[in-house]
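Curious: why this fold?
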Amino acid sequence: MSKTQRYREQHDELLEIATEISAYLQESKVVAEAVTIRSLLSKLLAKLKIHLAMEDKNLYPSLMQSEDQKVVNLAQQFIDEMGG
């Protein structure tokens, strides 16, 4: 497994949940499916917190050690944007 495989899998999982939520974002469905939407949002938030923590703890520090200044700059940009 590559070093970034788990992050890619998490991205797929997050996108899947977001897509599922978007199916309910019609006025007629929001009220009728409020409990389902809330559950999906909670699931998305929980997975997103784990994902961001993994990036902050493992991915970005590793990227900051790169000899390629472009990689370091990009990692720093992500850290700044995501509040890591």
